Amino acid sequence: MTSRGLLSLRGCELVAGRTPIAKIDSFELRRGELCVIQGESGAGKTSFLRALTGADPFAELRGGEFRLDARDPRELTEREAARARRETIGFLPQIASSTFEPMRRLDRQFGLRTSDLGTLRTWLERLDGEGGEQARSLLGRRPFAVSGGQAQRIAMASVLARGRRLLLLDEPTVGLDRERWTRLRDVLIELASGETYSATVLATHDRELVADLGAAASVRVLHFGDGELRQGAAPAIEFPEVRPCPTDSRWCLRATGLQVRPGRGASLTPELGLELHPSRVTALLGSSGLGKTTVARCLAGLLEPARGKIDFDGVGATGASSVHLVSQDALASMPVGRTVGSILTEVVEHGPEGRIGEVSEVCGFLRELELPSEAWSQPAESLSGGELRRVAVVRGVASGARVLVVDEPTAGLDARRAGVCIAFLQRMAETRRMAMLWITHDRALAERSAHEVIRWGNA
Fold first, then answer.
1. Does the pLDDT at position 130 exceed 80?
2. How far is residue 120's CA from residue 117's CA, in Å, rounded to a whole number?
3. pLDDT category, 32, cuts 50, 70, 90?
4. Per-residue b/e over 225-234, b at no fewer than 16 CB within 10 Å?
């Protein structure tokens, strides 16, 4: 390793697909350092991390000088580069569950030796706040039997258990309730303390996390802006305040005595009751792993609740034509290999009459949400997490459903785009008389931007 440290970039260009998106004049990282990367959605944060792994065909670093452990990974053979990545880098993707094999137990997903599984459980216990038996139970499940927040914590525990020298963490706090958020923050403070063996690059929109890290340790903050990687934090913007809306006595969806099982063998959740009304936004708060996403799937008719009743306009169980779910994992909800334009055109052509009648209107929605014009012709999987989130929101609105359930509406979005997306959803609820349910851990979002807040369990 040279005096420049573990990672060094000079005069490089970050390219996503075939498009240059940012210049990196100088970037260095030494062992024990933590560097935060901020920036607007689509500015290059995720592409930067994936380019550093060298394993993503859509992201690469061109030109200039690139040194990882004193070697340029681009000059290695494919086999040498793969080995260097395995031995040096621990990568947490933005949507951790997207990397899991669906039918393999979680404790067999990470290629860990049997002797390392105890370390994995120890890290998970620390991140989860539960005892060893609970950690063992979670790791014995398959991916579909855990929540998004649990999947995120398990993936994070696996990254820490491997003990790699360079940790690349993409939005690690997404899907975490307050208690688990605090636990992860404390781990990140340790990584930033300079006493660990690892260097960490953290891409996040979580401003509170960055503020806490900066107050407790020496942290460098950079952001992507105007096609460059720059010093300093990105500007902050508040969520839009909700406009008053009288409650229509007619409800679109009502759930009474609803109970679900968040995973195989899991206990029944506390009872949940809710009514969703036209033109009104309801926010549902609850701890990570409680069962919020499972409830969302039940409301959309994708799962059956363990107990309770769901009525739609008093007729009975809901279906996809009545309720559209914008899932937490936006990528998994998109058809593989299809362009954004073909996905949205299909929704328009097969949607209910009198709702969204023109593709041009959908294009207007994309512009309103500040998606680049070229996104229309790009494969969905080539977009950033924040761009995918906004495409998924447009798809939900274009479906013509009377009820829109959005699981973590601001996941993967920078502060400005989060505000734009929330304002868009508020306007769609008001002008199209859609009933909306936002599932979130963000109390500020719920209390400022929703008409009603339901606190489920101990939230």
1. no
2. 5
3. confident
4. beeebbeebb
Paired tokens of 429: 């609820």
Strand partners, 90: 167
E-state strands within 34-164? 34-39, 59-62, 65-68, 89-92
pLDDT band at 280 (very low <50, low <70, confident <90, very high): very high
pLDDT digits (tens, 9 = 90+) for 104-127: 999 888 887 777 888 999 999 999
Return the amino acid letter for 233: A
Kindly report the average pLDDT of the chain as a whole number: 86
**Token reading at 142:** 């398959």
Backbone torsions φ then ψ of 221, nearest 5 degrees: -120, 125
CA within 13 Å, CB half, 402:
13
Mention every residue, 6+ apart, whose C-beta is less than 8 A from residue 83.
none
* CA–CA dist 261, 268 (Å, integer): 5
Q: Which of 181, 213, 176, 235 is nearest to 411 (CA)?
A: 176
Strand 452-455 and strand 272-276: the pairing is unpaired
Indicate if the pLDDT at residue 185 is higher than 70: yes
Express each pLDDT in 260-275 by its tens digit. 987 666 788 899 999 9
Q: How far apart are CA 434 and CA 246, in angstroms?
A: 14
How does DSSP classify residue 301? T
The full 3-state SS of 383-452, as one line of letters, equals: CCHHHHHHHHHHHHHHCCCCEEEEECCCCCCCHHHHHHHHHHHHHHHHHCCCEEEEEECCHHHHHHHCCE
